[in-house]
Write a structure and sequence with these properties.
heterodimer; A: mainly alpha; Helix Hairpins; 4 helices; B: mainly alpha; 4 domains; two-stranded antiparallel sheet; 34 helices; 2% strand
């Protein structure tokens, strides 16, 4: 299971990298979103024994899965959501001002 | 060498007392006398700070008169030390500065530093008087005298400092003040260029010298020059010894305008003439000479030192005198002449180092005479070159030009100036009855000794040929300027004698030229012999060095050489129009100046090219650099340490359902790359998000699954909203070269990421700390372990995460609501 998930994560990272390298700002934002999926899955996979216990709520069983990665991921989800939202709005505003969503064209805009 | 007085450790104590009682009473008188050496350095610097205040209160009197008092006082103060120094006494006084790093403000007074200090203060006083008449009060005198005093203090610091770091500080201060003085008329482009060039060259050498000093400190463990000299035998075999020598010599050569670093000196002639006379003939350019003399006891025993110093000196001597002949500007002629004379002094110090060389022990006394000749010529050069610069300044000031082609026939109109010019130029050419004759004879003795010692017969030949050229340009200087036909129509002002105030300083210097010729031993015994003792501390027999000083004349080879110089020089001077074409062999664009200009230009062009090459301004390119670094550094580390391994034995079993979810996600991820419309890309992204949520369910993480579902939904909505406002994706050319690079980079990043993740999973080194959180009910009163971690055990994370959300919210709000009004953008543009 862990190996399968890790390979899945690697594919997500490759896809995210490819999107981030593109010249369309929307694709770049999409790439960051996918990158955060990959990161969350990876943190989960790295935890102690993926299915070797019950839900981490007291009274559910004799042994629990690792609760610490879950707490970390929960924090991370919220933060990456905030960043994605901000990035989208920045992309939207820049498009409004410049009339393009192409990063190569942004370079040539003289804003100084 | 008997009365060396060092008061290092008491200083801090004394200073403390001084601060506590705010009075000199507790400082003993003896310490006060010693402290004066430090004061000699500090006084000009303090005065430089006070110059602006002086000006406002006394605007009627030329402020130069107040400045004049400072070098005069210092000169008289230093004169009082001559008897003590002549007795072989040396003085040292230390004020602690950074004792932790052995950096202390130690002033050390011996014969060598006294010669230089007397030149600095004496010629400083004369130059000040001269500048009073040279510069009108319309000039920015505050700047001028501030820089001049700054330079004077720095130069005194250079010659008195015993601590190498302090020496370096003052050394750079001379470079900086010289830079300021050269660009005194900063509205002229040539002045700025000359200042920049001199700064670049001298500071480059200065930094090399600093590195050499640090090497010396590393080898010897002391910052003190005297300490290094006394410890030299213990580290002579160190591999850093020769590099340290070369770096320190680089500093000396750049400062003293030695070949090929001489190019800054002629362009520095854009400075006002008093500055040229003071800095660029008498004092600053001799800082490098001082350094060579000071470090001769350290490095003199090495063959490398002898060959470097002597050959560079001789090449400079020849090239300077050869080039001086072609100059048409009087100041440029004098500049090349200075270069040439400095080369001569340098080569003499090179020859004198043979006295310390183990291969020449028998003749050591003979060779040490070369250092005596060098010091003697150093003093002589300062006198006659100072006078000559002032003569040129007078001609320039009174006639409005210093171009030889426009001058002529001034002898009867400016008789006093003419006389001084003759005295200076004949001394420069090495003719009797002027002091240059004596030092030129001694120079010939030195090169003949070096030649006789079987080193190279080229040494005396080069010296002799260079002397002929020296004779030629000296004659050009006098006769083309003062004899011949008077061309009034080419002059801005009709010729007339200068005011006496302006003539005073050159007259004093001219008289010194004659006086030193008549009484050379007064100078020799009182100043030069003690200085020699400083250069050759190992030749303990000080009297031995003294015996030869009296032998300054006699019919010998040297005299024949001088006669040869005169005859050859007259011949060349008479036939100059026939052989002047030889200079066409060296066209203007072959010069070192052009080389320097090209180097400077190419440096700029190449660095701009490099920057333009990698700073493209495209986000994609910078991301590629980052990813490539990740692949090479992190991937390389994995390969290098061979830490990749795959262990699937401990994996949890995979159910069919999980296979389905994982495969769906892989397909979704890959199809994003091929998505034609962005709507499908956004939906595929949410497939990934919900897939992650399903995995969270499978891995017993209900809170995560809940959050992930909600967040994924909101994110998808956000993307869809953005979809409404943002334009349709343009089709990108997937066959382009950069796209293949992108693909390769992405696959590389993914593969290395996977390899590391797999390798890390198999390296569980210690068990998790998570069992502690299973006490959540006892410790935090909650049964949901994840929630107690978030809000109790690690609540700080949560608080800041909320702050992140808040800031993002504010950011979104401001971005959408607040827009620049029309006026604002124009304000920014201004």
């Amino acid at each position: 299971m862990e190996t399968l998930l890790t390979i899945l994560t690697g594919i997500l990272v490759a896809v995210a990298t490819y999107l981030i390298l593109s010249r369309n700002v929307q694709k770049v934002v999409l790439g960051t979103a996918i990158l955060s999926h990959a990161a969350h899955l990876l943190i989960m996979t790295m935890g102690k024994g993926l299915k070797s216990g019950s839900v981490p709520i007291l009274g559910e069983g004799p042994a629990y899965v690792d609760p610490l990665p879950q707490a970390l991921i929960l924090t991370s989800i919220v933060i990456s959501f905030a960043v994605t939202a901000l990035l989208l709005v920045i992309a939207y505003r820049t498009f409004q001002e410049t009339g393009t969503d192409n990063l190569y064209e942004w370079r040539d805009i003289n804003d100084e | 060498m008997n009365g060396e007085s060092i008061h290092d450790n008491r200083t801090a104590h004394l200073l403390l007392q001084f601060i506590e009682n705010n009075s000199f009473i507790y400082i003993e008188m003896e310490d006060l006398i010693l402290l004066t050496i430090n004061l000699v350095i500090i006084i000009p610097l303090l005065a430089a700070a006070l110059v602006p205040f002086l000006h406002k209160k006394n605007s009627k009197i030329h402020i130069g008169w107040f400045i004049f008092l400072i070098p005069l006082t210092l000169f008289i103060l230093l004169l009082r030390y001559i008897p003590r120094i002549a007795n072989g006494e040396t003085l040292a006084y230390t004020v602690e500065w950074i004792p932790t790093y052995h950096i202390n403000f130690t002033a050390y007074l011996d014969g060598l530093s006294l010669i230089f200090a007397l030149l600095i203060t004496g010629i400083g006083a004369l130059v000040t008087i001269y500048s009073i008449y040279y510069l009108s009060s319309k000039e920015n005198l505050i700047h001028f005298y501030t820089y001049l005093l700054l330079f004077m203090g720095a130069m005194l610091g250079v010659v008195f400092s015993d601590n190498m770091m302090v020496l370096y500080v003052f050394w750079e201060l001379t470079s900086i003040s010289s830079f300021l003085l050269i660009a005194f008329w900063y509205h002229r482009k040539q002045s700025r260029d000359g200042a920049q060039k001199s700064l670049l060259i001298t500071v480059t050498g200065g930094i090399a010298m600093l590195v050499g000093f640090i090497m010396l400190y590393y080898m010897s463990g002391t910052m003190s020059v005297r300490g290094v000299i006394s410890a030299v035998l213990s580290f002579q075999e160190n591999p850093l010894f020769i590099p340290a020598m070369c770096l320190i010599l680089l500093g000396a050569f750049t400062k003293s305008a030695q070949f090929p670093f001489h190019i800054w000196l002629p362009t520095a002639m854009e400075a006002p003439t008093p500055v040229s006379a003071y800095l660029h003939s008498a004092t600053m350019v001799k800082a490098g000479i001082y350094l060579v003399a000071r470090f001769t006891p350290v490095f003199g025993g090495e063959d490398t030192w002898f060959w470097l110093v002597t050959s560079v000196g001789l090449i400079t001597l020849f090239w300077g005198s050869f080039t001086a002949v072609r100059q048409t500007d009087l100041k440029a002629l004098l500049a090349y002449s200075t270069v040439s004379q400095l080369g001569m002094i340098m080569s003499m110090f090179g020859i004198s180092s043979l006295a310390l060389n183990s291969g020449f022990r028998a003749e050591s006394v003979l060779f040490s005479q070369a250092a005596f000749a060098a010091l003697f010529h150093l003093v002589n050069h300062s006198t006659f070159k100072g006078a000559l610069f002032m003569v040129v300044g007078i001609v320039d000031h009174e006639l409005g030009t210093r171009d030889i082609r426009r001058l002529g026939g001034l002898a009867t109109l400016m008789p006093i100036t003419f006389t001084i010019a003759i005295v200076g130029a004949f001394s420069m050419a090495g003719l009797p009855p002027f002091n240059g004759f004596l030092s030129k004879e001694m120079f010939f003795t030195a090169v003949l000794n070096a030649g006789n010692a079987g080193l190279s017969s080229a040494i005396p030949v080069v010296a002799w040929v260079a002397s002929i050229f020296t004779f030629v340009y000296s004659m050009i200087f006098v006769f083309k300027t003062f004899l011949g036909t008077y061309k009034e129509e080419k002059l801005e002002h009709p010729a007339h004698e200068a005011p006496y105030g302006m003539l005073f300083s050159p007259i004093v210097l001219g008289s010194l030229v004659v006086l030193i010729f008549i009484f050379p031993n007064g100078l020799g015994e009182n100043l030069l012999s003690p200085a020699l003792a400083g250069i050759f501390p190992s030749l303990a027999a000080g009297e031995n060095l003294g015996v030869h000083i009296a032998l300054w004349h006699g019919f010998n080879t040297e005299l024949m050489m001088t006669i040869g110089v005169v005859l050859g020089g007259i011949l060349l001077y008479m036939t100059i129009r026939y052989w002047k074409n030889i200079y066409r062999l060296f066209p203007e664009h072959w010069s070192f100046n052009t080389l320097y200009g090209n180097i400077l230009e190419q440096l700029e062009v190449v660095s701009r090219k490099i920057t333009d090459f990698y700073m493209t301004g495209y986000l994609r390119d910078y991301m590629v650099y980052i990813y490539l670094f990740f692949i090479l550094a992190v991937g390389g580390m994995v390969v290098f340490t061979q830490s990749y391994e795959l262990e699937i034995a401990e994996n949890a079993p995979i159910s069919e359902f999980e296979w389905v979810v994982a495969i769906v996600m892989i397909i979704a991820a890959l199809s994003i790359l091929f998505a034609k419309s962005r709507l499908s890309a956004i939906l595929l992204n949410s497939v990934l998000g919900y897939g992650v949520a399903i995995f969270f369910v499978l891995f017993r993480a209900p809170d995560l699954a809940l959050t992930q579902t909600v967040v994924e939904t909101v994110t998808t909505v956000l993307f869809l909203v953005a979809y409404y406002f943002l334009p349709e994706w343009k089709k990108e050319d997937t066959r382009s070269r950069s796209d293949k690079v992108n693909l390769a980079v992405s696959i590389g990043v993914g593969v290395i990421f996977t390899i590391i993740a797999l390798a890390v999973q198999n390296g569980k080194l210690f068990s998790s700390i998570s069992s502690y959180f299973e006490n959540s009910y006892e410790l935090a009163g909650g049964k949901n372990i994840v929630n107690t971690i978030l809000s109790d055990f690690r609540a700080f994370d949560t608080m800041l995460e909320v702050v992140v959300l808040l800031i993002a919210g504010i950011g979104v709000y401001t971005l959408i609501k607040v827009k620049a009004r029309k006026g604002d953008t124009t304000l920014e543009d201004e």
